[in-house]
Amino acid sequence: MGLFRRMRPDDAPEPDLEPEETHDVAPARTGPWDASDPRPDGPYLDLGGLQVPVPAGLQAHMDADQSGRVIRVRVEVAGSEVQLAPFAAPRSSGIWDEIRAEIVDQIHADGGRADELEGRFGTEVAAKMVVHAEGKSGRRTVRFLGVDGPRWFLRGVVTGAATTDPGAAQVVEDLFAGCVVVRGDSAMPPRELLEMRLPNQAPAVVADEEPDFNPLVRGPEITEIR
Description:
Layout: E1 33-34, E2 44-46, E3 50-53, E4 59-64, E5 70-77, E6 80-88, H1 96-109, E7 113-119, E8 122-133, E9 136-149, E10 152-160, H2 166-178, E11 180-181, E12 221-225
Parallel strand pairs: 1-11
Antiparallel strand pairs: 2-3, 3-11, 4-5, 4-12, 5-6, 6-10, 7-8, 8-9, 9-10
């Protein structure tokens, strides 16, 4: 029975009743976070455009390009590595769908295998990439994570134990979810890398060459250990 019933003429008036208030419940936010979001407390490695949570045992390595610009941070934890890079995105839409399609096409073109799967952060790419080292070819298991935020996109490239072991995967995913992207107010074209800096404004590192698509190729680095 509803909150109201039809009254007959001989009924005595009833007190006014109001329907219970209902509120739309926003889905729980689990990260990665925008700089304007309330987020969990904890120590962060402040890299400018990206803040990375610092769990026990973490090691962070900064890669730079020819000009000394930081292009990504590589975090080692739980027998795994995740490469993190934040990018600008349009105000009206995300870019992960198109970037994901490009990643899949590139891996197939190189002779590897790539599957799109549903994971903690939505659709991700699970891949067997063809890699070349010391004159030999092999395959490496890689996970590509992507999250679209307000005018930004955060990419994570995962290798190591977290590609197959659920326990290691949870550690890496928790770290990825805890990242904070600092987009800033300046106008930037989509896909432009957000400016990152070395902790404590350390001197820039000069690289020998620009990075290519292969996320497994390491450039010059500065290491920050926590």
